[in-house]
Amino acid sequence: MTITDEGHKGAQLGGKINEIWREEREDGVVEIWGRGPFDSSEFGQEAARLVSEEFLTGVSIDLAVTEVLTLDPETYEP
User: Fold this and answer.
1) CA distance to 32, 51, 57, 70, per residue, from 29 (Å)
2) Residues 3-62: pLDDT tens digits?
3) Alpha carbon distance 68, 78 (integer Å)
């Protein structure tokens, strides 16, 4: 399935996230970063074009949660 029904109704698959990490800025704000490839489909390539030409500058994702783990907010340990 490449088009969602709930949440972001009608959202299409445009790529995947292979890597996620945290970076703490000097002001104490923790940013969440991620990276991964765009899909080779027509929709994925159009999304890649819109990002590279800076028409899309934010992130909106539909996640299929398969595991949940509560972490200590100070140490990020379980």
Assistant:
1) 10, 25, 20, 20
2) 556 666 777 888 988 999 999 999 988 888 889 999 999 999 998 999 999 988 876 666
3) 11
